[in-house]
Design goal:
By secondary structure, this protein is mainly alpha-helical. It has two domains: 3-200; 217-336, Arc Repressor Mutant, subunit A (Orthogonal Bundle). Helices cover 71% and strands 1% of the residues. Strands 1-2 form a two-stranded antiparallel ribbon. Helix 7 (136-157) runs antiparallel to helix 8 (163-186). The longest helix is centred in the N-terminal third of the chain and has 29 residues, at 62-90.
């Protein structure tokens, strides 16, 4: 397997790492003693579950994910061997009871945190996702992480004499691992792309940050829905309307909405709102030519007349008073229309 192929199928590689981590434990138990079988297999399956959660789904961080999985596997083998050796020498497993919960949770927590920050800073990724729901995937990882912490905490507190409790914890761990493993195979997008934008045949490969122009229709649909929402609700008439309010109405987040607006218009949120307000003020004046500039500013959602005049000049290169005069002249003499269009 070449290096590029190795990272192009992170789901398959990480699943093999998870299985390898669990498969080594029975051999250690045969060497050091069968009494270690139940606790070590429970801890092993919890660590394997944590490794499965490292599989990337929509964000292209396959290299970091694969390396984190291998580091976790290496540490797991070291801790397991150390725990078995300690038990074989003096019958003590206290060190493992402390290290296994940390090994189960810390690498996954680090990966999920780094992935979240990278997604928030990746402009291409944010502007190509159709909704803020994609960002919820890391939150789901944190929820699984919390569940793993609870199980490992219970496991470390159960005494050696409570065999039934260890069996119960092992059963819960096995159920969790089975769900995660099956989901990692059957879940995820059907059509995916590699770094050059070519569709990939493997179902579980994450969607890369770059997607060809021909496949960006979902983003255009999202932008069109945003425009329809603004026109139908006319939320821009509220002078205190914020990007957080628009993101909430779109069931998204402010970063995604900001990048979406900039990608399609080249403007910021405030500039786009001012554009809508300026256009609305023109329609108001066309409907009632007796309105003054201050009236147009107040009715269009501007805080002050000064900001209205400044926004109008940015859009049309002239003051609203000058445009109103030209419009009135064009009504009197249609052949000498001076109205400017964007």
């Amino acid at each position: 397997m070449t290096k590029s192929a190795f990272y192009s199928a992170p789901g398959s590689v990480i699943r093999k790492v998870a299985v390898a981590n669990y498969a080594v434990i029975p051999f250690m138990c045969l060497i050091f003693g069968r009494m270690l079988t139940l606790p070590l297999m429970t801890y092993g399956i919890l660590i394997s579950s944590s490794v499965i959660l490292m599989i990337p789904r929509t964000y292209n961080d396959s290299k970091f994910s694969v390396w984190t999985a291998f580091v976790t596997l290496s540490l797991s083998l070291v801790v397991s061997f150390w725990d078995c050796a300690s038990y074989y020498v003096d019958g003590d497993m206290s060190c493992g009871n402390l290290l296994y919960p940390l090994l189960t949770t810390v690498p996954l927590a680090v990966l999920a945190t780094v992935r979240s920050f990278r997604m928030m800073r990746d402009i291409k990724y944010l502007t190509m996702k159709t909704s803020g729901w994609e960002m919820m995937l890391c939150t789901i990882d944190y929820a699984y992480l919390a569940f793993l912490m609870i199980i490992t905490s219970v496991m470390s507190s159960v005494s050696a004499g409570m065999v039934w409790a260890r069996i119960l914890v092992f059963a819960l761990s096995l159920l969790l691992f089975s769900i995660l493993f099956i989901r990692s195979i059957t879940g995820g997008p059907i059509i995916t792309y590699n770094s050059s934008g070519v569709p990939s045949g493997e179902k579980n490969v994450e969607i890369c940050a770059y997607v060809p122009e021909a496949h960006r229709s979902d983003t255009k649909v999202m932008y069109d829905k945003m425009c329809e929402l603004l026109k139908s609700n006319q939320s821009f008439l509220d002078a205190d309307y914020r990007i957080e309010d628009l993101a909430r109405e779109m069931f998204s987040n402010r970063v995604y909405v900001s990048k979406l607006i900039n990608a399609f218009t080249g403007m910021s949120f405030s500039q786009l709102m001012n554009r809508y307000r300026v256009e609305y003020s023109k329609e108001l004046f066309k409907a009632d030519v007796s309105l003054k500039v201050k009236d147009l500013a107040d009715l269009s959602g501007f805080h002050t007349q000064v900001t209205y005049i400044a926004a109008f000049k940015v859009v049309y290169g002239m003051t609203p008073g000058g445009w109103c005069k030209e419009y009135l002249d064009s009504i009197k003499d249609p052949s000498n229309s001076g109205e400017q269009e964007p």
